[in-house]
Amino acid sequence: MRERVSYLGPEGSYSSLAAKMLAPKAEQVACRSFYAAVEALLAGEVGCAVLPVENTLQGAVTQNLDLLYSHADLYAVCEYVLKIEHRLIAKEGTQLSQVRRLYSHEQAILQCGRFISNFLPQAEIVYTDSTMQSVSRIREAGDAGIVGSHVCAPGLAFVGENIADEPKNFTHFLLIKKGKEHLPASSEYVYFAATCPHEPGALLKMLQILSVYDLNMTKIESRPIKNSPGEYCFFIEFKGDIAAKYVRFALDRLSEYTKNFKLLGCY
Fold this sequence. Notes:
267 residues; alpha/beta; six-stranded mixed β-sheet; 8 helices
């Protein structure tokens, strides 16, 4: 039976492009939200899900970090970095000065904040579930959307070139599966989350475990713990082969020292 992969749709969204790269043989299942994509995986309706977890302009996609952390049986098994190029799309012949409503996903709006402030200060911003969904909202000359440069739609045209705040804009996607048995036997990176004990120097002590085993940390994010003011969960990626004994020893020590430790995946 052909595997199915869920992602934030509709077809043509950045997540759908990442899904084609991460699960090229899988049947694509478009979902209205990241939450729905994960729920489909948990319910067994799909075999894997694709989630963006970090953007080079806006940082972590915190909603998806929380989703990955909060479900004990979900693991990242593969990664893909997608180059993002945001373009303004509107009805053919529309000028910037005519735009009165701007539709797009919140992340795209944030990543184009400087352009919007400088050239579209008059526009009402309307958030959509995905960048691709904004296409269906364009009905009048005053409507516009922010979409990827790969998007084509009859009667619509791009207004100008790349409008992102920075031309080098990348989003880090992870392929998520249910069950630890899906983790690869070897890896280049390991990803985990943990809460430090409430004591002086706790974060330093956690990071020193990585240092003792000569493991190079490549990413760290912090998230406040719900219903526990002043406590944070740290999401940490380091370079290492999950098959190596010293990596497993390091993970064991991290698990013993920290609270609520979770291996998020390896890839």
